[in-house]
Structure of Dodecin domain-containing protein:
Amino acid sequence: MADSVYRVTELVGVSTSSWEDAARSAIETASSTLRDLRVAEIVKLDLTIEDGKVARFRARLNVSFKYEPGA
C-alpha cells in the first residue's frame, strides 16, 4: 500500500431535530464535493436557544479525507 496524506477540515452541521441529524447533514453535504471521506470526529456539541426553547442543534466535526495534490 502506498503512503497517503489526509487533510482534516472542520464542519458544522445544524439541525432542528437532533445532534445526530446535524452531524449527518454535515457529512452528507460535504460528501457531495469532497471525495474519499474517511473519519469524522465530533469535537463539540452545542445548541441555540430562542425564547427559552431549543431552536437548533449544532455538531462540530473534524473530517479527514484523502489529499490529492493538484486536484
Q: What stands out?
A: The first strand starts at residue 6 and ends at 15.
